Every structure is written in C-alpha cells, then in structure tokens.
Amino acid sequence: MTFGLSFATFMEVLDITIANVSVPTIAGDLAVSATQGTWAITSYGVANAITVLLAGWLSRRFGEVRLFMFCSLGFTVASFFCGLASTLPFLVIMRVIQGGVAGPMVTMSQSLLLRNYAPEKRGMAMGIWGMTTVVAPMLGPILGGYITDHYSWPWIFFVNVPVGIIAAAMVWSTIGQRETPRTRDPVDMVGFGLVVIGVGALQVCLDKGKELDWFESNFIITLTIISVLALTALLIWELGEERPVVNLRLFQRRNFAVAVTVMSLAYAAMFSSIILMPLFLQTQIGYTATWAGMAIAPVGVFSIFMMPLIGRHVGRLNLRVVISMSMVIFAIAAFWRSTFTTGADFGYFALPQLVQGGALALFFPPLVALYTADLPMAQYASAASLMNFSRMTAGALATSAVTTIWDNREIVHQTYLASELQSGSPRFTELMATMARAGLDTPTAMAETARLLIQQSYMLAANDIFFASGCIFMILIPVIWLARPAKAPAGAGAGAH
Q: What is the pTM of this model?
C-alpha cells in the first residue's frame, strides 16, 4: 500500500517538472510558437490547483479509495493520450484532464496512509512517502531533458503508464475493501463555481504574468481583478455555508493556521532556489542542463535517509524545536548561496544543496505532525487539500516572482557596475590594460567587458534573492512558536507534497 501510494505521488510530482524542459521541442513538433506551447504547462497547473482544493469535498462525496483509484487510472490514461497528441489543442485538453485528476490523487495518497496505519507506525510510512516528493522534482528536469534529447517527447508521458498501472494495482489489492464513509450532502454549487473562477484566474495570472509583463497587460489586470473578487466572495460564502465545498473553518485551529503559513512561506523561499539555481548555472556559468541538475541533486541525499528516521521518532520530539532547527539550516544554506561567485567550482554550488537536504527531513514530517496531532481523522483529507493548495500557490507565485525580480535586480546592479566602469575611470583603464596584456584588441576587450558586466550583474541579483530567502527562514522561527505545543503519537510523522 505504502509503495503504491508513493509511486502515484512520485508519478504526479515528476510530471510537473519533466514536461517543463520539453516545451520548446513539443512546440516545434506541433508547429506552434514556444509561447503557445507553454499552455501545455499552464493548462495542467490550472486544473491541478482547482481540484486539489476540492479534494476534501470529493473524498467525502465518493470515498477516498474510490477517488484515488479513479484519479490514478485517469492520470495514466490521460498520460497515454498526451503522448499520442498530434495537435496543441488535443494536448492541452489531455493536460487539463491529467492535471484535474492529479490534485485529488496526491491528497488522497497522504490521507489514506494516515488512515490505514496505526499511529505509532505512521511516521515510517509517511517518511517513505515523503521521499518521493523530494526525489521526483530533482529527477524531473534531468529525465525530461534526457528523454527529449535521446528519444522523443511523447515518452515523457508514456513512462507514466506502467507506473500508474502498478500503483493502482498495489493500492487496490491492499485497501480496495477499506472504503471510507461517504456523505450525500447537497452540492455547494456557489462555492464550487467560485473555486473554479477564482483559482483558475489566479493560476493563469501567475503562469502568464512574466511573459505578458505583469500589470502592463490588460489581460493580467483583468485576471487579477476576477481572482481577487472571486476568492474574497469564496471566503465569505464558505464561512457561512453549513456544508462548504472547501472547509475554511480549519483555519480556526491555531496549529493548522500556523502550519499553513509556515509551509507556504518556507516553500516559496525553498522553491526560489529550485527555480533560480538551474537558470543561474546554465545561463551565466555555462553548465549544461545535466550538470545543473547534478548540482541540485545533492538535496536528496540527506533527506532520503533522514526522512524515514525522523518520521519514525517524531512522536518523541518537540515539534516546534525540530521545525525551528530546520529553519536555521535552511537559512544557513540560503546565506551560503548568497556568497556564490562566477568563479566557484561545482562543489561550492552543490554543497548548500546537501545541507538543505537535512533541513527538508527536519521540516516536512514534524510540520504535518504538528497540525494533525489534534485533528479528527475525518478532516485529514480536507486539511491535506488546503495544505497542498497553499503549497502549490506559493510555488507558482515564487516561480513567477523570482524570475521577474532576478531580471529587475540585474538592471540595478548593471547600472551601478557600469557607473564604476565609465570610459576614462581608473577601473576602466585598469581593466582595458589587463585585457590588452591578454592579447585582446579594443573591440574584443569592449565586448568581453560587456559580457562580464552582465554576468556579474546576474550573479549579484541571484545573491540578493538567496539572501532574502535566508531572511524569510529566520523570520519564520518565531512564527512556529505561535503554535500550541503538540506531540504526535509515537512515530506519527507525515510528509508533504
């Protein structure tokens, strides 16, 4: 059961990143522009964000086992047809279906593990499950690039088919007869409609914001207004609804509210390095996609070994202390990255990732244990759906914001550095003399100076973002202590996607 649920999670998390690196190839093969090709990513994200928020309600309506089986098999079938797509509209439709069934699948895998294990054994099970959420995002870009370069892009979807079938078979053979209670409450159509409109508009806005220059685009402005109005209306409506489609009353629990806040901000800070590191290494240092992936990969080393161990013993630990320790380690890794230089070697880029792996193991299991310790089992699915939605939204926001901030900070640093290298200045004269001694003529030296200026500006801009991430982690330490003291049952740790 544990491996089946973990395989399903691995498949879904991997699919988020594996397709991103293949967009230019997909667009070329389908005879569309790269901009149009990104709708294959956006469509998946929009559908996924909507259904992950509805997962709690869907599980009560149809049962967690039945919902998981439908979603895992639906994901497998949709993946197969994505690989067969010969036009962009057909691919987008299949990606919408794929993303739509992916949201509940991951939430149900977490909830089913918590339900079917005794409290003292949940930690080890969730530690194994949690490893998939660490390994999959790292393997995604590497595997996607390799498959696209050596085979063809449809295989990034075809690889899901055997994994999905095996996962579904494992789960059905073990817990197929352990269906959860179902309710036949009236459907909250108003809440459902507001979720679709508000979350859909928000996700498209975040995905397309940078491409369309944010609020310089009327399209983005319109989406922002729609999203704010719909989500505000959703908040008001759901708090007054007797049987809401999204259980926002969970935020009345202090530990859940604190956990969601910490998860969202910490995940955004973590995701900023996940997004920025490959971009920085490939565009400014000259790494290939494979080597950039290798530099990021060490983040999984400690977490793979430590996460099951921490999960097993989390019930004996002070959860707030452990999470605070993880924030300190996250901050150390982020501040370390803020000292990167363009002359650093591979080891200097990879070592902070190794350190951060230890923080991941200390962060995810205790955080989920903190908010589930006093949570009724009947609310696990709703809580997991809200937590996953907040994490996904934070990741999407970080992706859009980091690339925009990086470009803006590069302009600031370039302006400053250029002022220090004005023609005739001592620094400019010294630099030209150095290049002349290296055998470069004046036009070549000027071109090399411009290249170095841009490279150093982007490096300094990346360092600014890494430093800001470290500050966010440190700020979150006192926030953790706003939670009530909680101790999970022995071994009742959990992972997070």
A: 0.80
